[in-house]
Amino acid sequence: MSAQAPSAVILVRATSFVPNPATAADNAFQAQPPEGQTEFTTSEKALAEMDGLAAALREVGVRVHVFDDDDHTRPDSVFPNNWLSTHAGGTVAVYPMYASNRRHERRHDVLEMLKSEYRVQAIVDYSGLEPDGIFLEGTGAMVLDHVSRVAYTARSHRADVAVLERFCTDFNYEPMAFDAVDSDGVPVYHTNVIACVGTDVAMIALEMIPDETRREQVRERLAVTGRTVVELTEQQIREFAGNAVELCGRTSTGKRRYVMAMSARAKASLRPEQIAAIEESCEIVAVEIPTIELAGGSVRCMIAGVHLDRRAPLEEAELTEAVGAINEDNPITPDGRYVAKDYA
């Protein structure tokens, strides 16, 4: 398994999707659905896009765990990477969320699935910091370089440096915090909209880091292992070009294949030489998700990577027992998806 590119992911299939009004104030990437489009139609379009992403990832050999969520009070639950991250060695982190209506996106059944199917040694829970007004929204707030052990973080309401340093101490990362703003001086709400770190390539809008010294430090740190740094423009960031993620799939013969998952809109914004630089190390998988992007996030936001060792396959009797333990009174749907159960 690649240190940087997980071979399994978690997706949440939110049946009641709308752009979250509670996050619109500091998320400049959010937009409203077309005039006259009902919430039902918006949700139906978003569901089709979520299913399309799951199918595209499975097509390239990525293992996909899909959890259903029909709770209409969780409009952003399609973005699980903000409350959950997993780490080699068997540790899972749970994060404090800025918007109060996002805090019940944390789900007990997701953690139980991880413990059942992967080797989990510990769960480190930072969510108790929410009453103190201290937040760090997972791999939205941080872009993690698992190879060089660096946590790139744009300061914002959703990325408190004190929690960042605590996370870095607990998980053995080097904190690299910086300010990032758009041309209007508005702070970037999540680091993962302006930066993506892969094994051999990184994409980042360095021009959005106003401090020239810090900008060069970030550039040098990204490139120190020989990684190619693809510089993105602010306009490309507005098309979600930075909101991508490298994954490790498999060919039909079982051979590893590295892919860069992004939206079709993001890929369309890239110049030919940028696409060529990415494709030197990984294949681009681009999917159409225009409805979900109304919420201010794109493909990277939708994916919680699983950086854990998989357990040996269970015998059928053990599997039946394990499934019951995960779901208790909420069974898995006939097509293999998990249904919602809140974190506790």
TrEMBL record:
InterPro entries: Amdntrnsf_FN0238. The keyword Signal applies. Keywords: Signal, Transferase. Pfam families: DDAH_eukar. The keyword Glycosyltransferase does not apply. GO terms for molecular function: transferase activity. Residues 1-24 form the signal peptide. This is Amidinotransferase. It comes from Nocardioides zhouii. The lineage of its organism: Bacteria, Bacillati, Actinomycetota, Actinomycetes, Propionibacteriales.
